[in-house]
């Protein structure tokens, strides 16, 4: 399934963030641990969107880029798990992932947000609930965000939420 939000200014990311937050909250209630795969060029808004998304669920979180730490964690209220925000930009090949242990988190606990995920494609492809989030720069001030998931079809309650939003994207 695919859902597209067009002509968004960076300050207008609330509608797609709200949609994704609704999916996350519902999936966590079902003991599903979503893996969000962010792609797009530098400056496309990946970290800005991650901040808006996390703050929809954890308003007090201080979200910043994990470029140098590779991972940041933000607690999820009333749960024992976290948002795990990964930035794999500095990794050059899949072997760089082996000693980091990220595969012990992805899809097994909380919510994983993975920027620059293709380097980990082999580790991620078999996870049960993934959503690709692609950020495209339309102009200096506008973005297009596309959500894609084939996994959503396996979870009727999430598929229903997705379909309700399909007719109302920005």
UniProtKB/TrEMBL annotation:
Compartment(s) where it occurs, according to its Swiss-Prot or TrEMBL record: Cytoplasm
GO molecular function: ATP binding; metal ion binding
Keywords: ATP-binding, Cytoplasm, Magnesium, Metal-binding, Nucleotide-binding, tRNA processing
Primary residence: cytoplasm
A Pfam family recorded for this sequence: TsaE
InterPro entries, sorted: P-loop_NTPase, T6A_TsaE
Keyword Nucleotide-binding annotated: yes
Keyword Nucleotide-binding: yes
Gene Ontology CC terms: cytoplasm
Entry superkingdom: Bacteria
PANTHER family listed in its UniProt record: TRNA THREONYLCARBAMOYLADENOSINE BIOSYNTHESIS PROTEIN TSAE (PTHR33540)
Family the UniProt entry places it in: Belongs to the TsaE family.
Protein name: tRNA threonylcarbamoyladenosine biosynthesis protein TsaE
Organism this protein belongs to: Leptospira tipperaryensis
